[in-house]
C-alpha cells in the first residue's frame, strides 16, 4: 500500500539476486538508493519505481539490464548472465538534502559512483555513465563535517581530476564536444600537468581549428610524456595542416 516512488525520492529495498541455476549472487537486507542516480543495476532502476511499499516483486533481467556482457567480479556474475531478482520495497521517502559528511565518506561515495560510471561506460551506456560521473563529482565537492587532512585533500583532488576526465570521455561519445572541452579545462585547473586532460584538450582545440592553441597544449603534453605516439601523431597532423601547399 501507498504511492509508488516519485523521481528524486529515496527507496529502501530488500534484494536477492540469483543465477539461472539458482546460485545466489546478491543478498542485501536493506539497499538504499535513489532511482535514476545510476547506483544500481538497470533492472532495479526500472523495476522498483513500479512498486508500492510492502510489495514483493520478481524481476527476470536479461544481461543488458543486469551486469552486462562482461559480467562482474563482485558480485560474482558470469558474462552475459541473466538474473532473477526478488525485491521487497520496504520504504519510500523524500530524497535527502546534501548533508555535510566526513571527507573519508565523501571519498568512498565518490569512488563508488565513478566505478558505477565505468561500469556503464564499458556497456556503451554513455548517458548513464555521465550521470554517474557527475554524481561522483557532486559527492566529492559537497560540504564536509571537518576540513580534510593533507592526504585526504590530495586524494579528493585526484578523484575530481579522474571524474572530469571520465566526464569528457563520455561527453565525446555523446557528441558533446563543447562540454568535453569544458571538462578538460576544469581538470586542468585542478592539475595543470594532467597528461590525459592536456592531450584531449589539444585534440578538441585542433578539431575546432584553433591550431596554435592546440599545438601549445600538445607540446606541453609531449614534455610530460615524450614517448607518447598519439601526441606525436597529433602534432604531425597539425604541422602538415599548417605547412604551405607544395608547388609541385
UniProtKB/TrEMBL annotation:
It catalyses: [protein]-peptidylproline (omega=180) = [protein]-peptidylproline (omega=0). It is an enzyme of class 5 (isomerase). InterPro entries: FKBP4/5/8-like (IPR050754), PPIase_dom_sf (IPR046357), PPIase_FKBP_dom (IPR001179), TPR-like_helical_dom_sf (IPR011990), TPR_rpt (IPR019734). Keywords: Isomerase, Repeat, Rotamase, TPR repeat. Residues 8-93 form the PPIase FKBP-type domain. One of its GO terms (cellular component) is cytosol. This is peptidylprolyl isomerase. GO terms for molecular function: peptidyl-prolyl cis-trans isomerase activity; protein folding chaperone. The gene is Fkbp8_0. Its EC number is 5.2.1.8. It comes from Erythrocercus mccallii. Pfam families: FKBP_C, TPR_16. GO terms for biological process: negative regulation of apoptotic process. The keyword Isomerase applies. TPR repeats lie at residues 195-228. The keyword Repressor does not apply. It comes from the Eukaryota.
Amino acid at each position: 500500500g501507498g504511492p509508488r516512488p516519485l523521481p528524486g525520492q529515496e527507496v529502501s529495498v530488500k534484494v536477492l539476486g540469483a543465477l539461472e541455476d539458482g546460485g545466489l549472487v546478491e543478498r542485501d537486507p536493506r539497499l538504499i538508493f535513489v532511482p535514476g542516480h545510476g547506483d544500481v543495476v538497470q533492472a532495479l532502476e526500472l523495476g522498483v519505481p513500479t512498486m508500492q511499499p510492502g510489495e514483493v516483486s520478481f524481476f527476470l533481467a536479461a544481461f543488458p539490464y543486469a551486469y552486462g556482457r562482461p559480467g562482474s567480479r563482485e558480485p560474482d556474475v558470469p558474462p552475459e548472465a541473466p538474473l532473477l531478482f526478488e525485491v521487497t520495497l520496504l520504504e519510500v521517502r523524500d530524497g535527502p538534502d546534501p548533508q555535510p559528511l566526513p571527507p573519508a565518506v565523501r571519498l568512498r561515495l565518490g569512488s563508488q559512483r565513478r566505478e558505477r560510471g565505468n561500469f556503464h561506460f564499458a556497456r556503451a551506456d554513455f548517458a548513464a555513465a555521465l550521470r554517474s560521473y557527475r554524481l561522483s563529482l557532486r559527492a566529492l565537492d559537497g560540504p564536509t563535517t571537518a576540513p580534510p587532512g593533507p592526504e585526504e585533500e590530495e586524494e579528493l583532488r585526484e578523484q575530481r581530476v579522474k571524474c572530469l576526465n571520465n566526464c569528457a570521455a563520455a561527453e565525446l561519445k555523446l557528441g558533446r564536444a563543447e562540454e568535453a572541452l569544458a571538462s578538460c579545462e576544469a581538470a586542468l585547473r585542478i592539475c595543470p600537468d594532467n597528461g590525459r586532460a592536456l592531450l584531449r584538450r589539444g585534440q578538441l582545440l585542433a578539431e575546432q581549428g584553433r591550431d596554435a592553441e592546440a599545438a601549445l597544449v600538445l607540446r606541453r603534453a609531449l614534455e610530460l610524456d615524450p614517448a607518447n605516439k598519439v601526441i606525436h601523431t597529433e602534432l604531425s597532423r597539425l604541422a602538415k595542416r599548417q605547412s604551405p601547399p607544395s608547388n609541385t
